[in-house]
Amino acid sequence: MAAARKNASIGKDERIPPRERIIAVAADLFYRHGIKAVGVDSIAEAAGTNKMTLYRHFDSKDELVAEYLRCLAGKSTATWDRFAAEHPGNPRAQLRAWLKEMAAHVASGDQRGCALANAAVEIPEKDHPARRVIEAFKTAQCQRIVDLCAAAELAEPEMLADELFLLLEGARVTAQSIGRDGLGDRLIRMGEAMMAAHDV
After folding, report:
1. With DSSP H G I counted as helix, E B as strand and the rest as coil, what are the percentages for the chain, rounded to 5?
2. Angle 132-133-134 from CA coordinates, rounded to 5°
3. Helices and strands: H and E segment counts in the chain
4. Is 90 left (phi over 0), alpha (psi -120 to 50) or beta?
5. Taking residues 87-99, what's their average pLDDT?
6. Would you state the pLDDT for residue 61?
7. Residue 154, SS3?
8. Is the pLDDT of residue 88 over 90?
9. Whose C-alpha in 20, 30, 87, 88 is 20 to 30 A from the C-alpha of 178?
């Protein structure tokens, strides 16, 4: 996985500030192995630092997990902004760009599904700081799709957004449980069919 190799190399690069190294290696370890399976000792070692330094930057492992997820949410927002810049004033093209990118993700052997959804499964406690990040991100992502569907003048934008959102979530699980063969192409075809069904 290219991102994993990049994060591993960041962990050993002392020119990068400790906080950034800790987040980078934590992101890699949490995504590959699961949040519950990775301890702070492993993170500190992979980041080329120690637990004292880790706790100087993060009050707890829970706070580190929340920050890891906030960073991922920020990358997703940047992706939506890129779609808007590439297809200004064309919400349908932005939706299609999103479908295409999501299809590439679910078809990739480097992916283990959505990191935020994976975290939600691992962290059932409603008062965990990561839960607020996950819920805010998923709600904002769905609202973004609603807004694009409405701007594209597609009928019942809330319903269509739910359909597209659930399609993607299901595709991510399918990639992990059954396999990826042809999944990306099916995701695009199904998404296009959903949009066509809402065309007025």
Report:
1. 75, 0, 25
2. 95
3. 10, 0
4. beta
5. 97
6. 96
7. strand
8. yes
9. 30
